[in-house]
Amino acid sequence: MRLPLLALLARGPAHGYELKQDLEQVLGAAYPQPNVGQIYVTLGRLEKTGLIEGEAIEQSSRPNKKVYHLTEAGHEALRAWFEETADEPRVRDEFFMKLALAPQTGLADQISLINRQRRQYLNTMRQLSKLAAAEDRDNRISHLLIEGAMLHLQADLDWLERCQEELEELQ
Amino acid sequence: MSESDAPLLRAEGLVKTHHGEGAPAHAVRGVDLRVRRGEFVAVTGPSGAGKSTLLHLLGGLQRPDEGSIRLDGERADGWSEARWAVERRRRIGIVFQFFNLVSDLSVADNVELPALLAGVPPKKARVARRELLAELGLEGKERSMPGELSGGEQQRVALARALVNHPPLLLADEPAGSLDSRGTREVMRLLSRFHQRGQTILLVTHDARLASAADRVISFFDGRIADDATLDAGPPPRRAGASGVLELRD
């Protein structure tokens, strides 16, 4: 959450609740809604490390609100973030371990493991399709997020298919 | 069992072996399958698993070496070619990967033809065609020739043609197989919409996204059913599932 908040602040000063709304607006309804408490905690940490600075604004009928802005160090951190490429997604480590180790335990059958895992992926795929159908058509970023998740899942399903082809031959 | 209790489609012990050059290919090796009225079933699996052959057997486009097929409780595997051709207009609609439209007929004629062949009066066929094309977002394309349309549009015409006689069963063989991502979503949306109105659908696809529109997914491997799973209708569990996949971590 740290760097996305810095990125939102690059546009100009804002307070915690505004940042939550901005994040929701950009990412769309499909993205799990950020918890406002988590945002305040993260802002506190960013301030402690000197990446942002807060300024208390008095409000007549409510408690003071704190408006944050990026510091020079914050700008630098953000630039470095955009400079770096992101890590590749990981293979499903845990499922892979189960598949690799099942035969010697005598406790689980590889094909049943694959079938069960496929059911879960298909159910998730279905939920993603429903999310995509419910999401605002004009929110491209949100649709790209859902499509990205679906394509990853599709790749995992293809891989399960390969596992099944290979391992069924042995049985 | 009375007719109305019978599954719309029931296959038992289906076997089909292709004898071409080289070793015989065992495309379908003993398949039992029931599809109830109103169900949307997807058959997925790697290419060469025999899933298209299975669909061809169920639509009478190929004959099984062994096994039986019942449509609405009625034994169908003994039907003649001519009878299958009639039933493919009346009781079974089929869409294919490459649309298979008649290239020198207009969009309107492609859709009306099966209705006219089934003995529907021309006026009624025209009304049915108009309704379906409107429903599928193809108004204004009536006079176009199939070659002038995009792949996605051609597949929608093919869908209209398959449904013009209100067949109880729709078979779809890789209907998005030659479409881009947008075309795939469009086909998915339309199949879901017809399903919600009660259309029974059997879909063959290697695309898990398309398959997930169905409420039952059969995994087909090496000519056999490896798994037959009913997908959940309920909301996603917390954390796992879709929101777990979507959560972007810092």
Automatic annotation (TrEMBL), chain A:
Residue ranges of the TM segments: none
Domain annotation Transcription regulator PadR N-terminal: ranges: 5-79
Domain Transcription regulator PadR C-terminal: 91-168
Pfam families: PadR, Vir_act_alpha_C
Highest taxon above the source species: Bacteria
Family annotation (SUPFAM superfamilies): Winged helix' DNA-binding domain
InterPro entries xref list: Tscrpt_reg_PadR_C, Tscrpt_reg_PadR_N, WH-like_DNA-bd_sf, WH_DNA-bd_sf
Protein's UniProt name: PadR family transcriptional regulator
UniProtKB/TrEMBL annotation, chain B:
Gene3D superfamilies: P-loop containing nucleotide triphosphate hydrolases (3.40.50.300)
Name of the featured protein: ABC transporter ATP-binding protein
Region of interest: Disordered: 229-250
Alphabetized GO MF terms: ATP binding
Keyword Transferase set for record: no
InterPro entries linked to this entry: AAA+_ATPase, ABC_transporter-like_ATP-bd, ABC_transporter-like_CS, ABC_transpr_LolD-like, MacB-like_ATP-bd, P-loop_NTPase
TM segment ranges: none
Ranges where the ABC transporter domain occurs: 9-247
Keywords annotated in UniProt: ATP-binding, Nucleotide-binding, Transport
Pfam families on file: ABC_tran
PANTHER family named among the record's database cross-references: ABC TRANSPORTER ABCH.1 (PTHR24220:SF86), IMPORT ATP-BINDING PROTEIN (PTHR24220)
